[in-house]
Design a protein that fits this description.
Elements (H helix, E strand, L loop, with lengths): L1 H16 L3 H7 L4 H8 L7 H11 L9 H19 L1
């Protein structure tokens, strides 16, 4: 289901970036418990909140709707991390 993909992709990107749920919750101006409801798919994301999340990650909101696009972003991030280590 598309809605589940959105939540999964947000969480995958959050983890790869090394961002805690607490930090992302603060950026969204919600409580940690509020973010957990989002992460577990217990609440629906509205367009505005999805745009804030995308802006925080510096990506287009559309990537959250497509696992392949999210995977490409993750690969780029991991490559940049490897390059910065050398």
């Amino acid at each position: 289901m598309v809605i589940e993909i959105i939540y999964e992709n947000i969480e995958r990107l959050r983890k790869v970036r090394g961002i805690t749920k607490t930090k992302l919750a603060k950026e969204l101006d919600i409580s940690l418990q509020g973010y957990r409801h989002i992460a577990y798919g217990n609440v629906r994301l509205d367009v505005e909140r999805l745009q804030v999340i995308a802006k925080f990650f510096n990506v287009e909101p559309a990537i959250f709707f497509n696992t392949e696009l999210t995977e490409n972003v993750i690969k780029e991030l991991l490559l940049k991390k490897e390059i910065s280590k050398t």
